[in-house]
Amino acid sequence: MKLIIKNGRVLLFEKDKAVVKKVDIGIENSKIVQVGEISEGFGADKIIDANNMLVMPGFINTHTHLAMNLFRNYADDMLLQDWLTKKIWPLEKKLTAEAVYWASVLGIAELIKSGVTGFLDMYFFVEETIKVALETGVRAYIARGLTDEPLGMEFQLKETKELYRKFDGKDGRIKIFAGPHAPYTCSPRYLKKVKALADELGIGIHIHLSETRQEVNDSIKQWRKTPIKHVYDLGIFERPTIAAHCVHVDDDDIQILKECNVSVAYNPTSNLKLASGFAPVEKMVKAGVNVSLGTDGASSNNNLNMFEEIHLASIVNKCVNNDAVSIPAETAIKMATINGAKALGVDGELGSIDVGKKADIILIDLNKPHLCPLHNPLSAVCYCAQASDVHTVIVDGKILMENYELKTIDLEKAMYNTARCAQKLTGA
Amino acid sequence: MKLIIKNGRVLLFEKDKAVVKKVDIGIENSKIVQVGEISEGFGADKIIDANNMLVMPGFINTHTHLAMNLFRNYADDMLLQDWLTKKIWPLEKKLTAEAVYWASVLGIAELIKSGVTGFLDMYFFVEETIKVALETGVRAYIARGLTDEPLGMEFQLKETKELYRKFDGKDGRIKIFAGPHAPYTCSPRYLKKVKALADELGIGIHIHLSETRQEVNDSIKQWRKTPIKHVYDLGIFERPTIAAHCVHVDDDDIQILKECNVSVAYNPTSNLKLASGFAPVEKMVKAGVNVSLGTDGASSNNNLNMFEEIHLASIVNKCVNNDAVSIPAETAIKMATINGAKALGVDGELGSIDVGKKADIILIDLNKPHLCPLHNPLSAVCYCAQASDVHTVIVDGKILMENYELKTIDLEKAMYNTARCAQKLTGA
């Protein structure tokens, strides 16, 4: 299958600098094979006319819990502890594979419609989420959530191992991570076991770290060190690690993250909505820490819209740093693309439009009132664009959405079944 | 003309509390005449089926500069002073009536498409903006920007007076405000003249106040008082006043705002993007100050999307106040509707769906993946909904957008001409 995207304005990273150029893109099977003028006789099976479109790498959502779509708008404007203990946890105990399946279909529909081509998910019944990713064509990085439940410990590790054997590398789109939930839900003994498993399988680790002030205070009380120092001392960071949140990190924490090449999945909406705090993003970026973006789950966001995360990453940090130049559009867009690929250890294959990389590409429709006039396409993406401007989405060289129409998902069915499953859980 | 909106979930404010009920709405000419079961023999000319829609009062954008759409994405990620002196002001000197006309058409298209039924604009060549409002059917509150330019002083006041004579009350949709730009661009002598004019015409005042720390520091240095105390002492607040921004206000300032019934037009995106600061919104709300929402102009936002302002008003203040319960969805939605009407002194006529009020109503399409499941419609509006979910917009009983289609604006023409005028200004 050969595909050409022509006449578009293309967002390229040239020597790490974002530039927008009028070039055409040649795709063969899953890969980008030409960028520039397409060679004569390329013989495309299909030509996409990207006139008046911005062509850019798909977004990579590096922290989410897709199935929490079930709890979207179910419990808001509540204190964190009440939210978790009275609302979310009781429902999660009643979760079924079917509910996770449909919420994953809906979640992936929402991701595709907002320009996301790959995501890192941590949850339960993840085999369902993997199934949906395989069916719908999106790229999925999956961590079975691991917590120190009585009796659950060995079982969860075994499940991770089985998921790895069964799915890692499947269709070139699935990758398994070890997913210890957090140091406050996993004992040191368990974390060491997780690390040993990750070593054995040669996989990365995804973990929540330093999300709230309370978590850090508790850690210092219990272990006499911050959560980051705590898991560092347990050897977690010897594996490639993506740490979600990192809101309350001190200079020593940042030094550890940098030295250990730990990537931070920053979730601005969730951090704001749960009143977790303002992550010191500029400080981490300046220290050389790789910061990527995530939406977190729909129960704390409450959508899965990476445009909102890009927007907030830029404007919130400007205000926090009292500096209108902080986290410019280019930096925020990189967080959502190439930095996501770096976080997942796949920046050789993904995150930018370059010959040899996988064709995970989105087309943004510039023919919108809120994007006119188009003085600066990077500003347009960061400060103006909406999920609803995503016109076409390509993953692994296959078109998953074209002219706003999902090609691999029956959206009505997904909405109907997710609502049905949610109703069953909440008893509403 | 009689219109019925039926089968919708309708957002009502009952005894100040937001509730969502399945009721029908009967509209006769410009007014809502029935809410509930429509009486037999009502004899509608048209019935709108709002099945699977949320029907709510249109948003009121209480601070914008529509024509700054010309400078959208033209100058971002810059220091405020450079932005103003090197980029914005030089272009504003070259503004033409034609440019303002087309940018106003584009701006109003953007407003309608994001559910805004009325707006308060402060700028130059405002007669063009008024013309467009009259042509397109939207509700417009207009302040000719007043600054202490040499020779310009008397002329600007005369223009305000002429605008008032010519347009105030026109078609029941235009209202003129006096628009002294700010205390740092208007001398006390000028502010007194503005106040005298507002007294003479019996109109309200719209002014920028305490937007930046610098402004407050300069005011204290020059006048030994805050900008708010300064204009209070000059008598400005004896007129109904809408003060934009009020980011850096102290307890005494808040007390003055409350006692003088000054409304605050809070502009979260602009405040964040320009690194102006975090306005003490919760404190003002608790003190009883009426806080409404604005987008500011597209050069500092960079769109005119009230959904983003509602979202930010809620989530940013939660984080600032370290309290996930701060500014709940209901409060943020009121800021965008009934509080906007209060700010403009028209809450007897607008801002809620009640018998006797003007029919300024929007329909939000709930059949979207990011709004499913619909556990809570208020949360859905505040935390999930997008401008692109606005399905139908009614102003003054007339349909300005139906099934996503603008009825009074040629969007392609507006975009083409705005881009053309912007190009002429920037020379790009």
UniProtKB/TrEMBL annotation, chains A, B:
Keyword presence, Zinc: yes
Hydrolase among keywords: yes
Manner of cofactor binding, per the entry note: Binds 1 zinc ion per subunit.
InterPro entries linked to this entry: Amidohydro-rel, Deaminase_MtaD/DadD, Metal-dep_hydrolase_composite, Metal_Hydrolase, MTA/SAH_deaminase
Binding site for substrate: 92, 144, 181, 211, 296
Cofactor: Zn(2+)
Record-listed Zn(2+) binding positions: 63, 65, 208, 296
Annotated GO MF terms: 5'-methylthioadenosine deaminase activity; metal ion binding; S-adenosylhomocysteine deaminase activity
Chemical reaction(s) catalysed: S-adenosyl-L-homocysteine + H2O + H(+) = S-inosyl-L-homocysteine + NH4(+); S-methyl-5'-thioadenosine + H2O + H(+) = S-methyl-5'-thioinosine + NH4(+)
Domain Amidohydrolase-related: 54-400
Pfam family, one: Amidohydro_1
Enzyme Commission no: 3.5.4.28, 3.5.4.31
Function per UniProt: Catalyzes the deamination of 5-methylthioadenosine and S-adenosyl-L-homocysteine into 5-methylthioinosine and S-inosyl-L-homocysteine, respectively. Is also able to deaminate adenosine.
Protein name as annotated: 5-methylthioadenosine/S-adenosylhomocysteine deaminase
Originating species: Tepidanaerobacter syntrophicus
